[in-house]
Amino acid sequence: MSTLNEITSEADFSAQLNALPPSALLVLYFHTPWAAPCAHMRTVLATLASQYPVTTPAAIAFLSINAEELPDISEEYDVSAVPYTVLARNGSILESVSGTDAAKVRDAVERHAGRASNNAAAAAAAASIPPALTAVPRDNAPAMPATQAPLGAASASSTTTPALTPEQNKEALFARLAQLVKAAPVMLFMKGTPSVPQCGFSRQLVGILRENSIKYGFFNILADEDVRQGLKEFADWPTFPQLWVKGELVGGLDIVKEELENDPSFMAEFSVNRAA
Amino acid sequence: MASNTPVEDLIREKIAAEFNPSTLIIRNDSHLHAHHNAMRGSTSTETHFHVTITSPAFQSKMQPARHRMVYALLKEEMSREGGIHALQLRTRTPEEEQRDKERLQNP
């Protein structure tokens, strides 16, 4: 049973790669600790890893990389948003999946590594997503960034907190949002995900960020109705997508386009292509 | 005779009254989105708009603040069921409009 191994340094990364045969499939999972969707994805990948036996020589390796602490590795694999999963073999990138589409990542791994062990695969297929997520329950602690509701999972958000009054609920939600908008220096609240946008304006904004090589965190507001409605009030802004920079609302697609037109170096400080 | 573009008329009326704009262009983009998931079940032909407004009222205000002024004006139409689903805005002062014109002429 393979495990998802956390890489601690560039030296560690090199060492692990060197220890693997060139034919091994590398599943690289890029994450940052502050982005809640990454916790979800971690569970997906750890579960996936457990379904592949450890062999000698190793046929597959699951490596977890903190994208912020190891920026050079992230740059090497063109990581522009987290969570981000890259499949590589023999020095070349086979495929990459941006975001939290568990089915897509599983599909990609299976295509390149062969199906996971039968029982596990069947069970996983039945659940359509790895087993009960206890990771990142949606409680009211303000320090926690919001959870992206997993697709179709059973008991996703734990509602074990004591009943709160509507005012307290709203206060808690706003506290949560205040943290969420600062979850990354550049935060995109969109419909869908960067790999599967569910709205033309969201898709365009993702495209613009990609074109400018901007590093950003994202949140799928279609997966969380509380955030969707709450953020409209919190931001005093009725529409999505919403781009926030350093905890301040910049605006939607139209504003971002215009800012870039007026000043091509707008947001350049967040680009991964900063001139040395 | 009743207009068959009541929402557009209302947008025009409200913006004109509030901003006394030197330029006001309202573009109905609803037909571009009619087939989208979000629009399923909708019978309205006035859901998506792109509005260009030039007014000195926007002076010394950043873009988000300007857009909020317009959103506040159209709050009711944007929040009601079947109302305005998307509103793209271009909000400029007369000086900015002039600057953009010159930029186009001198690329």
TrEMBL record, chain A:
InterPro entries referenced in this protein's UniProt entry, alphabetically? Glutaredoxin (IPR002109), GRX_PICOT-like (IPR033658), Monothiol_GRX-rel (IPR004480), Thioredoxin-like_sf (IPR036249), Thioredoxin_domain (IPR013766)
Keywords on record: Iron, Iron-sulfur, Metal-binding
Q: Where is this region: Disordered?
A: 136-163
GO biological process: any one? Answer: intracellular iron ion homeostasis
Compositionally biased region (Low complexity): 149-163
Q: Is-annotated flag, keyword S-adenosyl-L-methionine?
A: no
Segments crossing the lipid bilayer:
none
A Gene Ontology term for the protein's cellular component: nucleus
Where does the Thioredoxin domain lie? Answer: 4-114
Any Pfam family hit: Glutaredoxin
Q: PANTHER family, alphabetically?
A: GLUTAREDOXIN FAMILY MEMBER (PTHR10293), GLUTAREDOXIN-3 (PTHR10293:SF73)
Summarizing the function annotation, the protein's role is: Monothiol glutaredoxin involved in the biogenesis of iron-sulfur clusters. Binds one iron-sulfur cluster per dimer. The iron-sulfur cluster is bound between subunits, and is complexed by a bound glutathione and a cysteine residue from each subunit.
The protein depicted here goes by the name Thioredoxin domain-containing protein
Taxonomic source organism? Penicilliopsis zonata CBS 506.65
Upper taxonomic classification of the species? Eukaryota, Fungi, Dikarya, Ascomycota, Pezizomycotina
From TrEMBL, chain B:
What are the start and end residues of every segment in region (Disordered)?
A: 82-107
InterPro entries per the record? BolA (IPR002634), BolA-like_sf (IPR036065)
Q: Where is this chain compositionally biased, Basic and acidic residues type?
A: 92-107
User: Which Gene3D superfamilies does the protein's record reference?
Assistant: BolA-like
The processes (GO biological process) annotated in the record are: [4Fe-4S] cluster assembly
Q: Which Pfam families match?
A: BolA
Provide the Gene Ontology terms for cellular component. Answer: mitochondrial matrix
Give the record's family classification.
Belongs to the BolA/IbaG family.
- What is the protein name given in its UniProt record? BolA protein
